[in-house]
C-alpha cells in the first residue's frame, strides 16, 4: 500500500476489494473491444479489473501522487504499459482534456462523492462515445439519480442525466470494501446512453427550465419559471402551448416535458 493519507478534500475512499471491482466491471458489460474511462483510480484496484476485461483503460486522476504511481502498480501485475493512459487532471475539467485516442466506450468509476453528479453530467455531455457504464456514488445520490417523477428524491440530477441516458439502480456496496472505511453508504448506478433529446441550444434552455423548477420545487410551474418568461401570465401561456398544466409542480415532469417547455423560450 502506498505511503499516503487519503484526503477528505478530494473525497478519497479507495475500493480495495478485488471481487467488488470485478463485480462492477461485469455489471458494466465491459468487453475486450471496449476502451474504459475510469475516474479517480486511486490505488488501482478497479483499474486492474478493467485491464483484465477491456482493450485499454484511460484513467483520470486529480492526485499527482496517485497518478504517478498507477503505471508502476499496473506493470507489477503484468499488464502492458500501452494499455493504460493516465491523465493527471480534474475530471470536472473534462472539456480541457487532451484529445483521447482511442475514444472511451464505457465509463466505470468510483466517483468522488463530493462532486459525483457534476462529474457524471460533464462526462455524459462531453463524451458521446461512451455508450454505457457503472458509477459508484453515495447511496442518497444513487437514489436521486434513478428516481422517477413524483418521488421526493426526484430532482435536477435525475432529469439532467435523462437528457443523455437512462439510469438504473445496480445494487448496494458494503462499506468494508473501502479504505479508509467511509461513514456513508454507497451504491452502484448503471446508465445506458440514448440519443440526446435535441440540439445543444435546446439542452441549455431545457436545463435552465429544470434549474428554475427545482429551485422552487413546491411552487406551481407557472410561478417557478415566471422569470424565464417575464411574468406568471406569459409563463402560463408558454406552459399551455407546451401541453403542460400550469399548476403542476416540476417534480411531476419528465425531461421530455421540460424540453417541450424550453421550446417556448424565444
From TrEMBL:
<keyword id="KW-0698">rRNA processing</keyword>
<feature type="domain" description="Ribosomal RNA adenine methylase transferase N-terminal">
    <location>
        <begin position="20"/>
        <end position="195"/>
    </location>
</feature>
<dbReference type="InterPro" id="IPR011530">
    <property type="entry name" value="rRNA_adenine_dimethylase"/>
</dbReference>
<keyword id="KW-0694">RNA-binding</keyword>
<dbReference type="GO" id="GO:0003723">
    <property type="term" value="F:RNA binding"/>
</dbReference>
<keyword id="KW-0489">Methyltransferase</keyword>
<dbReference type="GO" id="GO:0000179">
    <property type="term" value="F:rRNA (adenine-N6,N6-)-dimethyltransferase activity"/>
</dbReference>
<dbReference type="InterPro" id="IPR001737">
    <property type="entry name" value="KsgA/Erm"/>
</dbReference>
<dbReference type="InterPro" id="IPR023165">
    <property type="entry name" value="rRNA_Ade_diMease-like_C"/>
</dbReference>
<dbReference type="GO" id="GO:0005829">
    <property type="term" value="C:cytosol"/>
</dbReference>
<keyword id="KW-0949">S-adenosyl-L-methionine</keyword>
<keyword id="KW-0963">Cytoplasm</keyword>
<dbReference type="InterPro" id="IPR020596">
    <property type="entry name" value="rRNA_Ade_Mease_Trfase_CS"/>
</dbReference>
<dbReference type="InterPro" id="IPR029063">
    <property type="entry name" value="SAM-dependent_MTases_sf"/>
</dbReference>
<keyword id="KW-0808">Transferase</keyword>
<protein>
    <submittedName>
        <fullName>Unannotated protein</fullName>
    </submittedName>
</protein>
<dbReference type="Pfam" id="PF00398">
    <property type="entry name" value="RrnaAD"/>
</dbReference>
<dbReference type="InterPro" id="IPR020598">
    <property type="entry name" value="rRNA_Ade_methylase_Trfase_N"/>
</dbReference>
Amino acid at each position: 500500500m502506498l505511503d499516503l493519507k487519503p484526503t477528505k478534500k478530494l473525497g478519497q475512499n479507495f475500493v480495495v476489494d478485488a471481487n467488488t471491482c470485478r463485480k462492477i466491471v461485469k455489471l458494466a458489460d465491459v468487453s475486450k473491444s471496449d476502451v474504459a474511462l475510469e475516474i479517480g483510480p486511486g490505488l488501482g484496484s478497479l483499474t486492474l479489473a478493467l485491464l483484465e476485461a477491456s482493450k485499454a483503460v484511460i484513467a483520470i486522476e486529480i492526485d499527482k501522487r496517485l497518478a504517478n504511481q498507477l503505471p508502476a502498480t499496473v506493470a507489477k501485475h503484468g499488464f502492458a504499459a500501452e494499455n493504460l493512459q493516465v491523465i493527471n487532471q480534474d475530471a470536472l475539467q473534462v472539456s480541457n482534456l487532451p484529445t483521447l485516442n482511442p475514444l472511451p466506450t464505457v465509463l466505470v468509476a468510483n466517483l468522488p462523492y463530493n462532486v459525483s453528479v457534476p462529474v457524471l453530467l460533464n462526462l455524459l455531455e462531453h463524451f458521446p462515445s461512451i455508450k454505457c457504464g457503472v458509477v459508484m456514488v453515495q447511496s442518497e445520490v444513487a437514489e436521486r439519480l434513478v428516481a422517477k417523477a413524483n418521488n421526493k428524491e426526484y430532482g435536477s440530477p435525475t432529469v439532467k442525466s435523462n437528457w443523455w441516458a437512462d439510469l438504473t439502480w445496480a445494487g448496494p456496496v458494503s462499506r468494508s470494501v473501502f479504505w479508509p472505511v467511509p461513514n456513508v453508504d454507497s451504491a452502484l448506478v448503471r446508465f445506458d446512453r440514448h440519443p440526446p433529446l435535441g440540439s445543444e441550444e435546446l439542452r441549455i434552455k431545457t436545463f435552465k427550465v429544470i434549474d428554475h423548477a427545482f429551485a422552487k420545487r413546491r411552487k406551481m410551474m407557472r410561478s417557478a419559471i415566471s422569470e424565464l418568461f417575464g411574468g406568471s401570465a406569459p409563463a402560463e401561456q408558454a406552459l399551455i402551448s407546451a401541453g403542460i398544466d400550469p399548476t403542476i409542480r416540476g417534480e411531476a415532469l419528465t425531461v421530455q416535458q421540460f424540453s417541450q417547455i424550453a421550446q417556448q423560450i424565444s
